Amino acid sequence: MSPYTIFIIDDEETIRDSLSLILEPDYIVHTFANGSKALEEISHTTPDLILLDIGLPDISGIDLLKKIKKNQPDVPVIMITAYEDIETVIAAMKCGAYDYLVKPLNNDNLELAMGNALETVKLRKEVKILQQKFLEDNLPCFIGDSDVIQDMLDFVKTVAKSPDTPILILGETGTGKELIASSIHYRSPNFKGNFVTVNCAAIPTDLIESEIFGYDKGAFSGANPLGKKGLIEEAINGTLFLDEIGDLSLDAQAKLLRFIETGEFYRIGGSKKHHVQTRVVSATNKNLDQMIEKELFRKDLYFRIGVIKIEIPSLNKRRSDILPIANFFLHKFNEKFSKNIICFSDQAENALTDHNWTGNVRELKNIIERGVLVADNTKLSPRDMGIAEASASEPDIDQTCTENLPPPGLALSPDGLDLAGFQDSIEQFYINEAFKLAKGNESKAAKFLGMNHHTYRYKRKKFTL
Predict the structure, then answer these.
(1) How many helices (H) and strands (E) would you count in the chain?
(2) In Å, how far are 60, 167, 174, 321 from 311, measured between CA atoms?
(3) Range of the domain at 114
(4) Which listed residue, 11, 243, 367, 454, has the most CB atoms within 10 A of its CB?
(5) Rounded to an integer, what distance in angstroms lies between the CA atom of residue 332 and that of residue 325?
(6) CATH number for the domain harbouring residue 409
(7) Tell me: the pLDDT tens digits for 16-26?
């Protein structure tokens, strides 16, 4: 691991020089005589540890600490004070200081305080490396630059920071709901806990409650005589992922609601109350609103599991991501089958972007796996993948759109004409029609309209299409 970077902020030159002399053999050291210069550097450089004097000429150390923590909340700050004033020390610790040292500095105390702080930094870096490796290895379905997927991933990063807020993931079959759930877990404070998956559709109705909540001995005929822990207990301090939650019975829904609200539950046949801290992430491809209307799903549970809702876009709605994802799977299955397929043929690329992906990323993965396995050429063809070739000719946008043009409305009346509004409506119409004809491929849609990709994307955002 590369040397840690230490910032020393102290107005006394002798302190800065002596600390530098002690630390420079093992660390990268930067010194600052005042708070403003240090704050400027911190705004674009993240140190691993800061040694901060409480008494600075231009700003109090406490105020500077608050600003540092606002910009770099994860950086540990050890306060240095000329005298041990309890009120000042308490104020510093409340503002997020990691520790404090009293001048004159004792080398042993300095070494101990820095060692503890940097051990925390080391662990945090290791966790981030593990998280990033997991995400790179396990989230191929979210490769791509489309706005819709990037916005969703940014939202996932934000909501993952909470350890217990319930999240509901919505999306069609094959869009990667479980992968999003695992991404939330591995980005969350619950990273070290278990990620426990329950497929509510795969477990018989009469067994689902005992699987989730567990049971005590003698709870029912055929039960384990020693009883059994439920999956909720397996997910302690981690994440419980309830896939296909729309398949839960109403009785199980009632017990789940109580657990989410209180963190408490009873095993089947038991009288002892159990308490577990875990985050519940749910997912479904069903329309829960319709199920609520038909009294098949509890409305109060819907509101509890859906404090945060994440809707995964279908592959048909982000066609510009199809080829990047396909190339990822091509590389993956090349390695698996020891093949050397270089790329997709032009016909194969057109076929992939033209295909109706009802099975989403899962279907794309299966098609590429089949193609790589059976291909006997260095280029993958539509025949290898078992999908139909796209039409060789591009659609005629003028001919297709003319049938659907809005009425001109250009005749002037005594009330006048909103020309700017009319121009916007025409532009919005063609932007949308080009997107449909290009089957969601923004680059191709932009070419239809004779504009560059960035301009087209800006206009789609402008009209919220």
Answers:
(1) 20, 16
(2) 47, 11, 13, 17
(3) 5-128
(4) 367
(5) 11
(6) 1.10.10
(7) 999 999 999 99
Rounded-to-integer distance, Cα 6 and Cα 18, Å: 14
d(CA 384, CA 339): 14
How far is residue 188 from each of residues 135, 160, 162, 280, 292, measured CA to CA in Å? 13, 5, 7, 12, 31
Q: Which pTM was predicted?
A: 0.60
- Each residue's pLDDT tens digit, 359-377: 999 999 999 999 999 999 8
Quote the CA–CA distance of 26 and 117 in Å, as a whole number.
15
Q: Are residues 117 and 246 in the same domain?
A: no
* CA nearest neighbour of 189 among 131, 228, 143, 139: 131
Task: Name the CA dihedral angle for 19, 25, 26, 30, rounded to a multiple of 10 degrees.
Answer: 50
**CA triple 112-113-118, angle to 5 deg:** 100
CB 330 within 8 A of CB 375: no
Look at the chain and report how many structural domains it folds into.
4
Could you read off the pLDDT of 170-197 as tens digits, one per residue? 999 999 899 899 889 988 888 889 999 9
Whether the CB-CB separation of 240 and 200 falls below 8 Å is answered with no
Burial category of 420 from C-beta neighbours within 10 Å (exposed 0-12, middle 13-18, buried 19 and up): exposed
Report cis status (omega within 30 of 0) of the bond before 225.
Answer: no
Same domain, 407 and 283: no
Least confident segment among 115-129, 196-210, 249-263, 391-405: 391-405
Q: Tell me how far apart the terminal alpha carbons of the chain are, to the nearest angstrom.
A: 47
In this structure, the number of other CB atoms found within 10 A of the CB of residue 399 comes to 8
